[in-house]
Amino acid sequence: MGHIIVEVMPKPEILDPQGKAVGSALPRLGITSFTSVRQGKCFHLTVDGPVTDELLADARRAAEEVLSNPIIEDVVRVEELTDAAGGAL
C-alpha cells in the first residue's frame, strides 16, 4: 500500500484566527521559541500498490479541486508519505 500526503495552508494574506489563538497560547505554556503559527489542513491518501507519478497527479488534482478552496488556500505539498528513513510507509 502507498500513502500520499497533501498539505493545504491559508494564503499568506488570509487571516488565520486558529493559528493566532495557538500562537497566543504557547507562551502561557512556557513555549516561547516560535514567532508565529499558521494552521492548515493535512490529508493522508492511501492507494493500493506503490505511489506512481499518475497517482501523485490525481492527488494534486484532488487537492486543487476538492481538498482546498483556491480562493483562500494554497496547496503546499503533494508527495509520497515516507518514514523517517526515507522508505515508503
TrEMBL record:
One of its GO terms (biological process) is 'de novo' IMP biosynthetic process. Keywords: ATP-binding, Cytoplasm, Ligase, Nucleotide-binding, Purine biosynthesis. Pathway: Purine metabolism; IMP biosynthesis via de novo pathway; 5-amino-1-(5-phospho-D-ribosyl)imidazole from N(2)-formyl-N(1)-(5-phospho-D-ribosyl)glycinamide: step 1/2. GO terms for cellular component: cytoplasm. The keyword Nucleotide-binding applies. One of its GO terms (molecular function) is ATP binding. Pfam families: PurS. PANTHER family: PHOSPHORIBOSYLFORMYLGLYCINAMIDINE SYNTHASE SUBUNIT PURS. It comes from Schaalia canis. Part of the FGAM synthase complex composed of 1 PurL, 1 PurQ and 2 PurS subunits. Gene3D superfamilies: Phosphoribosylformylglycinamidine synthase subunit PurS (3.30.1280.10). It is an enzyme of class 6 (ligase). InterPro entries: PurS (IPR003850), PurS-like_sf (IPR036604). Its EC number is 6.3.5.3. It is found in: Cytoplasm. Belongs to the PurS family. Part of the phosphoribosylformylglycinamidine synthase complex involved in the purines biosynthetic pathway. Catalyzes the ATP-dependent conversion of formylglycinamide ribonucleotide (FGAR) and glutamine to yield formylglycinamidine ribonucleotide (FGAM) and glutamate. The FGAM synthase complex is composed of three subunits. PurQ produces an ammonia molecule by converting glutamine to glutamate. PurL transfers the ammonia molecule to FGAR to form FGAM in an ATP-dependent manner. It catalyses: N(2)-formyl-N(1)-(5-phospho-beta-D-ribosyl)glycinamide + L-glutamine + ATP + H2O = 2-formamido-N(1)-(5-O-phospho-beta-D-ribosyl)acetamidine + L-glutamate + ADP + phosphate + H(+). This is Phosphoribosylformylglycinamidine synthase subunit PurS. The lineage of its organism: Bacteria, Bacillati, Actinomycetota, Actinomycetes, Actinomycetales.
